Amino acid sequence: MVDTLENIVGVSFQLTEEQLMLQKMARDFTAKEIIPVAMEHDEHAKFPREVFDKARNLGLVNMNVPEEFGGLGASLLEECLVAEELGYGCTGISTSISTNGLGNLPIIIAGNDQQKEYWLGERLMDKGQLVSYCVTEPAAGSNVVGMQTRADRKNGSYIINGSKTFITNASHANFYTVFAKTNPEAGHRGISAFVVDRDTPGVSVSKKFDKLGQRASDTAQVTFENVEVPAENILGPEGSGFYTAMKVFDYSRPGVAAAAVGLLRRCLDEAVKYAKERETFGTKIYNHQAVGHKIAEMAINYEAARLLTWQSAWIVEVGKPDARLSATAKAFAADRAMSAAVEAVQVFGGYGYMKEYPVEKLMRDVKVFQIYEGTSEILRNIVVRELFK
Predict the structure, then answer these.
(1) What is the pLDDT of residues 20-46, one digit of tens each?
(2) CB of 193 closer than 8 Å to CB of 159
(3) Fewest C-beta atoms under 10 Å: which of 47, 326, 374, 383?
């Protein structure tokens, strides 16, 4: 039995003063710089370079780069706080802003000090460049071990051949973190990670894909044809790439979940605002239980998804990454955000189906959360695997 509050240790939902300031800065930035331009960028599938540069100047890009290499060295929870606020405004624009934080993770996790100094310090922080994360392949999808991209040793270098698809910011990236098989017969132990400069001969980027949602986020295919990469660009020991990729997921999934939480909160706010204004049968529509309960469900799921997301970030910070928890948080947040978007459109009725109202875009943007960074089905497979180990 716990007698006093002083005996309760290890759990607190109170953000620090610095975290609250960071959260407010991201919220203000979203209101001023993202929401006013979100519809235009969506309609024209326009990459938000100006917004990206403004976010970078505020320190909202490359947040996870350690201080010794010029970054903020932000905690994963702090990244999640920002991801929720940016995701509230537009998950297409927020994905463009946050992708450096995914592409640089293999370097942070597996790179040596020299690699970090150059790629993180000089290229990302000093020059303000972009990096994309290249794992997914046209024929492999969620099956990382099934990738076909090869990296063969030759005269002290590696020759990379293959294609990566659905690569965020691919058209604008200055370099890529790329996973390829260095020993195809070794299964998951035969995958290695590399940094590949965009200007290397043989690197090409396809025309960007025309997407259902998150249209402000650039997505394209990257092809490597006899691309010669110096051996010094390998991240970690040869054959360690699969383990690096799995660690990346531990760090990246909470942030993706947080962006979904932000979109969920936007659905909730838009539904509440509309239900306060719209009247049918002589009363505000939130007084009809069929509508009110939909909105209550959004509120319940928002609180639960945010807590799961924070927990999944916290457990990484304390040095105990949990694949089951990160998969749970991302799957739950994605699925509940999808549900909230569908119900928000329903609350708006016919107006929800029109592009001039915000919930139409929210419904298009949200679907991909159930697909990238691990589909909701794959994430459930991970939960099953961890439960029955």
Answers:
(1) 999 999 999 999 999 999 999 999 999
(2) no
(3) 383
> 287-315 burial, b if ≥16 CB within 10 A, otherwise e?
eeeebeebbeebeebbeebbebbbbbbbb
**Tens-digit pLDDT profile for residues 209-253:** 999 999 999 999 999 999 999 999 999 999 999 999 999 999 999
Catalytic residue among 40, 373, 377, 386: 373
State pLDDT tens for residues 156-204.
999 999 999 999 999 999 999 999 999 999 999 999 999 999 999 999 9
- What amino acid occupies position 311? Q
Question: Can you list the domains of the chain with their CATH numbers?
Answer: 17-126 (1.10.540.10), 131-239 (2.40.110.10), 243-387 (1.20.140.10)
Residue 117 annotated among the catalytic residues of the structure: no
Bridge-based pairing state of the strands 175-181 and 131-134? parallel
Residues 77/310, Cβ–Cβ less than 8 Å:
yes
Q: How far apart are the first and last CA of the chain?
A: 33
